[in-house]
Structures are given as structure tokens and as C-alpha cells.
Amino acid sequence: MSTPTESILNIGRTDDETALPAESFIVKYPTVARVVRVCFAYAFVALAVGGLFGVIQALHRTNVIRVIDSADYYTLLTAHGVFLAIVFTIFFLAGVFAWANTRSLERPPLNPRFTWLWVGTMSAGTLLSGGSILAGLVAEIDVSADVLFTFYAPLQAHPLFYIGLALFVVGTWLAGIDWFRQYLDWRADNPDERIPLQSFMVLTTMLMWYLSTLGVAIEVVVFLIPWSLGLMPAPTPLLTRTLFWFFGHPVVYFWLMPAYLMWYTVLPKLSGGRLFSDPLARVVFVLFLLLSTPVGIHHQYLDPGIAEGFKFIAMTNTMFLLLPSLLTAFTVVASVEHGARQNGGEGYFGWLTALPWRDPAFTGMMLAGLMFAAGGFSGMVNAGMNINYLVHNTIWVPGHFHLTVGTAVALTFMAAAYWLVPRVTGRALYSRPIGLFQVVLWFIGMTFMSAAMHRGGLAGIPRRTAEPEYSKFTFEAVVGTISSLRLQIAFGGVLLFVSLVIFLANIALTAANNEPATGLKTDLPPALSGPEQSPQVLDELKLWAIIAIVLVILAYSLPLWSIINGAGFYQDGITASPQVVQPVLEVLI
Amino acid sequence: MHVHNYEKLWLLASLALIVGFISTIVYGAVGAGVVMVNDEGGQVNASGLSEHPEFNDPGVRKVGPNEYEAYVVAQQFAFSPDPIEVPANSTVTFYVTSRDVVHGFEVAGTNANAMVVPGEVSKMTVEFNETDEYGVVCNEYCGQAHHDMAGEVIVKEPGNFTLDDAGESTTAQATNGTDETANGTGES
Amino acid sequence: MVEAEAGSETPADVQAPDAYADGTLVRDPEVENPLGQEDFDPKGTLALLLVYFIILTLMWTFMYYVEFLGNGPTVIG
Ligand code: HEM
Ligand SMILES: [Cu+2]
Ligand SMILES: [Cu+2]
């Protein structure tokens, strides 16, 4: 029996090598399987640490159990945000995309060294940023980054935090290059074929990512790193906020797209059906490429210094961005229904019983999708410009995104892991019933935590706050009492944490399982309505990229120009941020 | 392109939903008169607030019959003035800015809520019709004692209301708000 | 673990040897009672989504007109 680490790092053949068929992913592409294992390992370590901090926060801010100082709350919150919303999500994405691109193009990346280069760059970035956040908990080390995962100026982090972030993003860019080279290699052999669907999803998502990370790259490289090194004055806060949100909205689709990839391409198979429509899947990904970025100002509805007209434009774009998700709801549910009908399902709703609910991968993804439907609603409220006054920066907002990224994405990833980990380790899943229990527990925990957060937000309770109340006044809940809301948040948080521990244990035991995975032969079924039923122009990636750029220029040039014109690039005299580097430089020079 | 009829129907329903949302929001703006915080407040020099004609002395001024202006400065970890006192049946325009980092200004349990960004002035006009006491929360993380940053808005019986500093309540100039700032960078 | 056991409640598991491979229900729809593009109308999906549509409309109306517009004071200038 090998340890989990060994089986993650070593090529995961089980003792019984003959059990793995020649056409299984792990045998065909051992290096890629290994890359996926390493990406997943990073993702799950980040999930473990981030989840631990999550439950500490949930118990602390509701005053149920306190193990930290309120002043340290924000260090944990920064770590929770960065580890979960950036490291966990994006490393998992990298694993899924490496698998999907290779599987659907039927060839490994051209140069494994290049692949390890991006894995290494992302790892180095993670260690630098993560390390500088956690150093904030150790008084002896003069490094901290208590700036939350939104890190706008003038709150300042240690330069290592920003440098780590920059490296991490560069790593993702290199990964994208790797996947594009894989595609071009395939294209050379298949000049007239339609891009295989999974690869199409990978490529459009990466194009969206290149466009949207421009904002954060400029923010970090041009402003935050030189400023934190003491080389430049503080940048204008509004400018850094705007550059951050240029990236901050599309990043949510970057989290979501690997989940959509699983829903479109794997979930139909799990249900026993076929993808309902390949053409619409393509349309949806193109719409995300076009519309994800020119909407970021919707996070700044309540910012001064931005004209209402710009906010209105961002609002209409955002509302149209609902379209691809609403279309996804139809296509994915119809694909599952197709499975149910083939299983003998009947009636308008009765077919729902003819589905493999005992499969944790299936049930996890379905529950994730259900929560996404609910999170979609609270997102519509957030997006609604003037109604945003009601909820902005209240705890409603974490209530919302724990449904979306915290469940639609995270639970889909966990469910996907139950299906993918056997494919990239060659080992059978340790326990399916435990997996099933785990995904259901997550759903229940999140129902408690998120619903209470939404209601707390309507009572005006702010997000990102260590204390449950203020000395000067009390909050009033519309229904129920504030203290019962607090208990529900704490209780839900504990259930979520228990679910998380079970998940990690199940995966670790799988990695150490000597029983070989079976059934690796089977492939993903073709779509009911195949790519040949869609216009060729959908595959014109260059065209869509150009339109996406034009839309971004239209949406952002005037607002950015007016901010720079009004407030300028730099702002003097802001002294309240922790000056970490200046003293160091003074000593050195 | 092949699209199933049911999916076409759903596409139409989705578009109807989207157009419906946008129309509601337009109604909120035009019919109900909800205005977004915007660039009208202009800019200030965050480090020069003590030279600013208004923010040098944060407080409430009377600018017309039942019309007031409240100049509020947010800084780690307090609002000034605190409490902000205004009479009932009045229209109050808040001008809020920050001396240091980004803060929030949320009158808890109401729809008066804005970001407070150094260098910018958040301008919000609100009607207070009844006497009441509201908490003001800083809802944007601003540093280690963020959770202690709160204030109050007290809406008083008009009969009991006096301005502490009546000399401040000049009319004509003050309505220009912050358009003219200490260092002349302002323009709206 | 016994792969074929865990899902035995669904009618679908009387399948080829590969059913429930690696913990996954696997069918080859081309082989047994395949339901093709022409014969399949996703009426269940449409029904579910219409229910969702109604919920969204009602909740939106409630949130906007009751929770939001009823929550004054509101910024009017
Ligand atoms: C064990 C499960 C989890 C628990 C108990 C939990 C709990 C919490 C709590 C209590 C907050 C802080 C609310 C505040 O003070 O504003 C929070 C914030 C947050 N959570 Fe979670 N969470 C969990 C899992 C996740 C997952 C899986 C993700 C994403 C993949 C996630 C993403 C976030 C983000 C992005 C924030 C906001 C951080 C910020 O405001 O800067 N959480 N979570
Ligand atoms: Cu957004
Ligand atoms: Cu604060």
C-alpha cells in the first residue's frame, strides 16, 4: 500500500497493472495524468486550509466559538478568499482543462517540460502569496498581506504577495499557450474538422481569461508592485478598484467554465444520456467570451467618481450575460432528461426518479446545479443596479457567492473528482456511499449557511466583519431573530466543514487504494445534435476574440479615461496603510 | 442551425426575463426616482481635507427650508461627525469622503449605502420623513479594527433640532457642494 | 467496493459489463433502446424551467417592490 503522496506524485498504476486497459487515459497519457494529479493535489490542499479558515470565520463572526483574535480575522479571511477563490478553483481548472484538452484532441501537449513550467510557475506564485498571507499570523515575521482577495489600494500588502499573484497569473497564461499549441498541432492534422467540444470550451475560456487578466496584470505590475516596493506613490484607489473589477467579474466565469465543461460533457453520460445540443454549448461559450469582461463595473454601482450612464451600460451587459447561463440550464437538464427517458423515466416530473441518484458524481453535480439556480436569483438582485443599494457589501453577498463559486463550482469539482480521480490515478474510488453522503451534507450545510447569510444581509449586517454586532445599535431581522440567523450560519459552516473533511479523506483513501479502477474504457457519448448542425463560424476563434476586444474597449475606455482625467494615476498623502517596505529600505540604504 | 422548438421557447422566455429586469430597473430610476451614487461629488485631495472649505469641519449645515447638507469624513476607524443629527421631514444630502483607505457608508436597514473612496466624494440625497435612529456601518474592510467602525444617524423631532454651529448654515455657496476644492482639482 | 451494487435501485443498471464502471453509470445509448434526436422532446425540462421562470418572476417582484422600494430612505439624488 503506498501513501497518498506517493500515488499522487508517482504514476498512479495500481499493483495490478494489467487491470488498466490500453485505451484508458492514464495509460495513454501518463504525463498528463500526472500533471492533473499535481494540480488536483494543490487544489485540495488549498481547499483543506481554506475550508478550515471558513469554519473558524463562521464560528467567530457569529460569536459561537472563538479561537482567534478579531484583528486576525482578516488574515484568515484573506487566506480563505485567496486559497479558495483563486488557488483551489484555478488549480482544479488547470487539471480539468489539461485532461479535457488532451482527451478531446487525442494527443498530449507538445513539450512536457513546458507543461511542467506552467505548473511550476503557478506553484511558485501560490507559495509566495499564500506564505505572505499566513506570515501575517506570526508576529515575529514582518510580512503580511491582510488585504483580502480583492487587494485594492490603498491597503497595502507585502510585495511578495503581489509578486506571487503575478507569477500565478503568468503560470495560467503559459498553461493557455500549452493548450493552444496542442490545438494547433491537432489542427495541422485535421484541417477541416470541427474543434472537439471540450477543446473548444478550453480555448474560448482561455481567450476570455487572457483578455480579462490584462486589467489585474496592469494593476499589479504597473501600480501595486512598484508602490509596495516603495518606488512609487500610492495609485489612485478608484483606478485600482476599476482595474481589479475589470478582472474581478470575468474571473467568476473562469471558475464556472470548468464546472460547465463537466455539466455539458460528463453529466449527460453519468445520467445515461447524451448532450442535447453541441451547437448551443458552443454558442454559450462564445457568449461568455464576448460578455464576461465588459460588465465589471457592476461591482462598482455604489462607487463615487463613475457616471451613472456607465453603470447603466454595465447593468444591461450583465443582464444579457444571464442568457448563456439560462440556455445552459435548458441544454444540461435536457441532456439529463434524455438519460432518464432512456432509463424508462416517464411524465413531466416523474423522470427525475429514473436517474442514478446513488452516484456521488451525478448527485453532486445535480445538487450543485440546483444551488446555482438559487444563486442565479440572488445574482440577478446584485446585478440590478439600483436594487444593489439594498444588498451591497452586506452578508447577502457571501450568501450569494457561496451558492455560486462555493457550491455550483466547488461541489461540481468535488463531484467531478469522484469521477476523474480514478481516471488519473487508475485507482478505484474508495467509497461511493460515503461520497454520496458527503455531497448531500454539503448541500444541507450550504442551505443553512447561505439562506441565513442572505437574510442577514437584508437586515443590513455587513460582510467581512469579525464582530456580530456594534455597541451603538442593533440589527433587526425581517423574519426570525438575528441570533437565530447567526446560529444557522455557524451550524451550516460546521456541516460544510465536516463534509469537506469527509471529501478529502475519501480522496486520500482513493489515492492510496490498491484496487484498480474499472471501466476506464468507456468514452463520452456523442451529442444528440452534433457540431455538424451548427454554423462553421462558431469555430472562428479569432473573430470572437476580436469582437470581445472591441466590446471591452467600448465598455471601458470612457470610464477609465474619466477616472484618470478626474483623479489621476497617483494620489499623494495616503499614509494609513501599513508601510512594510519603507522601513526595510531605510535600513538597507 | 438546429435548435429544438422547446429550447427556442426557453430562449424567448429568457429574453423576456432579461428585458423585464432591465425595465424594472429603469422604472426604479425614472418612476421611483432612485439615483445612483455617481461622479457629481467631484474630487478632493484626501490628504488636504483640513484645508477643504467643508470637510475641514465635518457636520450638518442648513441650506434651505428643510434642506440640509451633511459633510462626513470617514477614517480608520470612525466617522465624523458622529452622531449625524438631522431633523425629520427634511431632505439631506450627504457628502462623504475618506482621509485614508476605502470605507463604506451604509445606513443600516435602509437603501442609503455607498462606497467611500479617498479622493472622491460620494454624494447622496435622502429624505428623512420620521424621527428615528439608524446605525451607520462601515461595510468595506478598512483595517484591523474595521468591525469597530460604526456611527449613527439620529433623525430628530424638528422642534428639538438645532444646529450646534449655526454659523455654518450659509446657503448659496454651500449648495455648490464640493465642486470647488481646496487645491482646485475638483470638476464634476 | 462492489461497483455494480451501489446503484441497483435505478432501472438502468441491467446493463453491459461496463455499467457502473469506476463508480459511474455507463450506457451505450446507440445499442439498447436508443432515443434519437427526432424522438426526444424534453418536455420535462421545459416544465421544470417554466416552474423556475415563475419562481424567478415572483421573487424578483417581491424583492424589488417590497424589500427594496419599501426599505426607504432611498437615495434620490
Ligand atoms: C467549509 C466551507 C466554507 C465555510 C464554512 C465558509 C465560510 C465563509 C465565511 C463565514 C465567510 C466570511 C464572511 C465575511 O465575514 O464576510 C466566507 C467568505 C468567503 N468564502 Fe467561504 N466558506 C466555505 C467554503 C468556501 C468555498 C468552497 C469557497 C470558494 C470556492 C469560498 C469562497 C469564499 C470567498 C471568496 C469569501 C469572501 C472573502 C472576502 O470577503 O474577502 N468559501 N466564507
Ligand atoms: Cu460580477
Ligand atoms: Cu471599515
Give me the secondary-structure topology.
The complex is a heterotrimer of chains A (589), B (188) and C (77).
Chain A: H1 4-9, H2 25-28, H3 30-61, H4 73-105, H5 112-134, H6 159-189, H7 197-228, H8 237-248, H9 250-265, H10 267-271, H11 278-291, H12 308-320, H13 322-342, H14 360-383, H15 388-391, H16 396-425, H17 432-458, H18 482-511, H19 541-567, H20 581-588
Chain B: H1 5-30, E1 59-64, E2 67-75, E3 78-80, E4 84-87, E5 90-98, E6 103-107, E7 113-116, E8 122-128, E9 132-137, E10 150-156
Parallel strand pairs in B: 2-5, 4-10
Antiparallel strand pairs in B: 1-2, 2-3, 5-8, 6-7, 6-9, 9-10
Chain C: H1 43-68
The structure holds protoporphyrin IX containing FE and copper (II) ion (CU) (2 copies).
Residues 103, 138, 140-142, 146, 149 of chain B line the site of one copper (II) ion (CU).
Walk me through the structure.
The complex is a heterotrimer of chains A (589), B (188) and C (77). Chain A is an all-alpha fold. Chain A is built from 20 helices and no strands. The longest helix of chain A is centred in the N-terminal third of the chain and has 33 residues, at 73-105. Chain A is globular, with a radius of gyration of 24 Å. Chain A starts with a helix and ends with a helix. The relative contact order of chain A is 0.13. Chain B has 188 residues and is of the alpha+beta class. Chain B is built from 1 helix and 10 strands. Chain B has one helix spanning 5-30, and strands at residues 59-64, 67-75, 78-80, 84-87, 90-98, 103-107, 113-116, 122-128, 132-137, 150-156. In chain B, strands 1, 2, 3, 5 and 8 form a 5-stranded mixed sheet that branches. Chain B has a 5-stranded mixed sheet with strand order 4-10-9-6-7, with no helix packed on it. The longest helix of chain B has 26 residues, at 5-30. By secondary structure, chain C is mostly helical. Chain C folds into 2 domains: 1-39, no CATH class; 41-77. The N and C termini of chain C lie far apart (66 Å). Chains A and B meet through helix 4, helix 8, helix 12, helix 13 and helix 19 of A and helix 1, strand 7, strand 9 and strand 10 of B. The structure holds protoporphyrin IX containing FE (HEM) and copper (II) ion (CU) (2 copies). Residues 51, 54-55, 57-58, 61, 77, 80-81, 84-85, 88-89, 148-149, 398, 402, 405-406, 410, 463-465, 493, 496-497, 500 of chain A line the site of protoporphyrin IX containing FE.
